[in-house]
Amino acid sequence: MPRPPDRMGAISSALQDLESALRSLVDENTVLKNQLQRIVEQAGQLFNGHMPRGRLARVSKGRDGGPRKRGRAFKFTDDQAADFRKQVEGGKSAASLAKELKVSLPTMYNTLKRAGWSGRGQRGRGRPPRPARARDGAPRKRGRAFKFTEDQAADFRKQVEDGKSAASLAKDLRVSLPTMYNTLKRAGWKGRK
Hints:
Blueprint: H1 7-48, H2 78-89, H3 94-101, H4 105-114, H5 150-161, H6 166-173, H7 177-186
């Protein structure tokens, strides 16, 4: 006669599996509770003015109340930066100072700005602003120099007004048509009537 299956053994085994699963959940819950408690303590220290240690320390403020500096430490101290600023405001160029100290120009500019230097935008050396070169009352030209002089441009305008095409003139002078049109406009040419 076959032996009936042991139901109590199966139930006992299932209960042991359930107990082991519950124990692992309790352990995991304890770990999470401890982590949460540490986070709450660090947040409380942060709001109470205490300096936390570890990862939350990165949130802290610098000495002046602004965010703490990130990245590499400054190459020069604040006293050195103030001395460099005096030298530059006294007439020495930032480029020559950077070359003398064997640092890059951006490093020198950042050091000077950290010392309160406002830069050349306000003519930091105390020089008055340069006046614009007057050319028929127009402001100074920026960019590449003109290909032709004012006299040449006036001569080209006369030729075009006498009937020569701007395209043939450009071809003869081996310049692009836009260059020729810009030269003619500079000479006061208004276009075909």
